Amino acid sequence: MKYAIKVALSVRGDFDDLGDLAEGIADELAGLQDCNESLLDFAFGSDATDSTVEFELTVKAGSVDETVEVGGSWLRTAIHATGGCTPGWEDCGPREHALVYELDDSGVNVRPLERIR
Questions:
Q1: In the chain, N or C terminus with fewer CB closer than 10 Å?
Q2: Each residue of 9-30: b (16+ CB within 10 Å) or e?
Q3: Prediction pTM value
Q4: Residues sharing a CB contact under 8 Å with residue 87, sequence separation 6 or more, in sequence order
Q5: Residue 89 Cα to chain centre, angstroms
Q6: pLDDT by residue (tens digit) across 36-63?
């Protein structure tokens, strides 16, 4: 199955250009995409007015949980490869604010993603 994960990140620290920072992370994601057939696509955008970057990854996975875990791991790997750090990621990474959109014949149902374990 194909799933998408969208992660909005607040960027803190010393950087000259938020767009360049986002581009660097995207370059690292492209490298991960080249060597992993489960990372199907990604997109990103940045907003310098509030120092946020948003990434959307399309992932081939067996479940929503796997998508969040694997997609979040790839994103974190790309951030670290650019010299960034992710303190507290385990406690407030993508899973903490994840919403699941389920489509069926009755329409769209939105629910929070439950914690695994």
A1: C
A2: bebeeeeeebeebbebbbebbe
A3: 0.78
A4: none
A5: 12
A6: 999 999 999 998 888 889 999 999 999 8
